[in-house]
Structure formats: C-alpha cells, structure tokens
Specification:
The chain is an alpha+beta fold. The protein has a domain at 127-185: SH3 type barrels, CATH 2.30.30. It has 3 helices and 9 strands. It has helices spanning 3-21, 44-47, 81-84, and strands at 55-59, 72-76, 127-134, 137-144, 147-151, 156-157, 161-167, 170-175, 180-185. The longest helix has 19 residues, at 3-21.
Length: 190
C-alpha cells in the first residue's frame, strides 16, 4: 500500500470513531424559553387579527441556567387538521399534483354542426308543350311522361302543385307542401 492510501485509511478510521463515540451534547446550554414565531406577512395572522391564538401556560420543569427562577412556557394551540386539509366530499376530486405536460398544441376544436339546409321543393316534373290564348285567358299545355295536362290559373295539379299565375314568358306554380313558388318558361305572348 502506498503512503497516501495509509493516510486516507487512518483518517477514515478516526472519522468513524468520532461519529460513534464522540460527544454529542450541544455546545450551548438550553435556556428553557419558548419564543413565539413571527406571523408571515400575508399569512393567517394578518387575515384574522380579531382573536389571538389560544395559549397554554405551565411552569418550567427545571430551573433556568444561571440560578434564575423557573420561566413559564407558552405553547400555542394546535390547528385542527380539518381546517388545514379539508376532506374531499362527494363531487370533489383530488387535485392532480403531477399533471402530464406536453408541448404539442391541443387539437383544434371541431366546427359546430352545420344547420341542415331548409327543405326545398323538388324540380318541376312538367315539361312545356305549348300555350293558347282563349277568351282573354291563357291555357298552357304541359306534359308529364305520356300524360297531357291543360292548365289555367288557379287549377291544382295532382294535389301537389297549384297554378298561381300564367303571364308569358313564365308560368308560376306553387309547391303546396312547402308553399314555394317555381317558374316554368313558356315563351313570349305570340
């Protein structure tokens, strides 16, 4: 073994002996006095100045150092645990002390559901075949498949459509379930 290692080993043995068998008494004698703790600046004492904390006084068990008479000890009353840590009731959850942290941005909010479009009348199922002016009133010939319909103002067609107005160049129909107007081009007044 080298000299350096011998010195370090001997110092280790001395430190262990002092730790186990050394004098463990405090260097300053105990005074037997209890000092009241200062209230924090924004703490409980500042918010509740109306009532001082309850104190319990009792004589000291041993005489003070220096031959003085025994001092009285003041012990502050303990605050009940229920005031310091409230119980969790129904509907209350424990706060998450160690929440998960993520640097990814939250996903965008989904767009609000779109309003459904208002109901629309189906396309007009009739085709224009011709027109005729008879007795000052227009007659229009419409076809649907192989059917031929002769219509005048105010007539109902198949219980779904009503002829509202015939004035060339348009024929105006009203789709009765939705009360929507639709127009068919019938050409000029010739």
């Amino acid at each position: 073994m080298s000299a350096r290692r011998l010195v370090l080993l001997s110092l280790l043995i001395v430190a262990m002996w002092l730790a186990l068998f050394g004098d463990k008494t405090p260097s300053e004698p105990a005074t037997g006095e209890v000092v009241e703790a200062a209230a924090p600046a924004g703490g409980r004492a500042a918010s509740e100045p109306s009532s001082p904390p309850a104190r319990e006084t009792r004589p000291a068990a041993a005489a003070s150092v220096g031959g003085k008479r025994p001092a009285e000890l003041e012990v502050a009353a303990l605050i009940p645990r229920d005031e310091l840590i409230p119980e969790t009731g129904e509907g209350q959850e424990h706060p998450d002390l160690f929440p998960a942290l993520s640097w990814t941005p939250p996903p965008p909010k989904p767009p609000p559901p779109a309003k459904p479009p208002p109901p629309m009348a189906p396309p007009v199922p009739f085709t224009f075949l011709g027109k005729k002016l008879e007795g000052g009133q227009w007659e229009v010939y419409l076809g649907r498949g192989e059917q031929l319909l002769i219509v005048r103002e105010g007539m109902k067609l198949e219980g779904i459509y009503q002829v509202k107005n015939i004035s060339p160049p348009t024929l105006t129909l009203v789709y009765l379930p939705l009360k929507q107007s639709q127009a068919i081009s019938i050409g000029g007044a010739q």
